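Lab notebook page, bench 4
Experiment: in silico fold of construct C2
Operator: M.H.
Input chain length: 118 residues
Purpose: comparison with the prior construct
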Amino acid sequence: MAFILGLSTPDKSPEERVIIGQTMAFYVLALSELVHIFNIRNNHKSVFKSNPFNNKKLILAEIVSASLMFIILFTSQLRKIFNIVLLPKEHIFEIVLLVFAPLVIVEMFKLLKINGKE
């Protein structure tokens, strides 16, 4: 979905649209996994009813991973290596929605008690 949204960027050449789509997909895949890790800690209990900050090593790993992602985004030499670009501002909100989508979807499944087990 992120790639398709990047391809739909107006006022850009087809090559720029592809790179924007790849950048969006790269960031959504990486950051959504960092958010989703809190979902999979407990299959039945909501992340909002548990203390997600009680595992200090996990929190440290999350901070380091997210920091590395943003260092790649904001360092021009690393952007060239990863073949990504700074994203247009209109895509930031879309990325945030897509990053947090797994959290919302899994929480709805937990609320409805749909977890694959009878």
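Observations: Residues 39 and 106 are 7 Å apart (CA to CA). The first helix runs from residue 2 to 7.
Next step: discuss at group meeting.
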